[in-house]
Each structure stands twice: as C-alpha cells, then as structure tokens.
Amino acid sequence: MNEPFQEERMVRLRWACRRTLQVLDRPLGAFLKDCHQKLNLSEQFAFERLLSAKDQDILDWIIGNRESGDAGVRAIVNQIRVHNDRITEGHPNE
C-alpha cells in the first residue's frame, strides 16, 4: 500500500476505535496502536469488520457474554482480550 493511503486508512481506523461506549475506546485504540501493524491482511480485515459492529455487540464479545458468528472477528476479539490483559498487568509488549 502506498504511504498516503495507509496514513488515511489509519486515521479512519483511529476514528472507528472511538466508540459511543467509552469503555471500548481503550482496548480498541490500544490494540490498533500496538498490534494492528503486526496483523496479516486477513486479520486487518477482521478487525475492520469488528469495528463495523454495534458497540453493545463488541462489548459483549470482549467481555465474553457472547461470540461473534464470524471466525475472523472471534480471533481478533481474543487478540484484543490478550493485549488488554497485558496492558492492565503493565506488560503491553510481551
């Protein structure tokens, strides 16, 4: 991807991580900042599908009340949980 397109995409993703349910801002934003660049293309698309979901659905998936019907989104949710746990424990880059 060319540089301007990638920068624009990251801006759009940062805005998409800002949610009406503010409890989602931290895990989604931190995951984007710390992990997105390491994802393969399929995982990046799954993350974007996750961001297109309703806030309450995302919250339910992250806290484990329900699972997404999309296997890619389920895998990203698991990665977000792991990353959020590391941040909470003070080890974001492990």
Automatic annotation (TrEMBL):
The keyword Chaperone applies. Pfam families: Sdh5 (PF03937). Keywords: Chaperone, Cytoplasm. InterPro entries: SDH, SDH_sf, SdhE_FAD_assembly_factor. It is found in: Cytoplasm. Belongs to the SdhE FAD assembly factor family. This is FAD assembly factor SdhE. It comes from Candidatus Thiothrix anitrata.
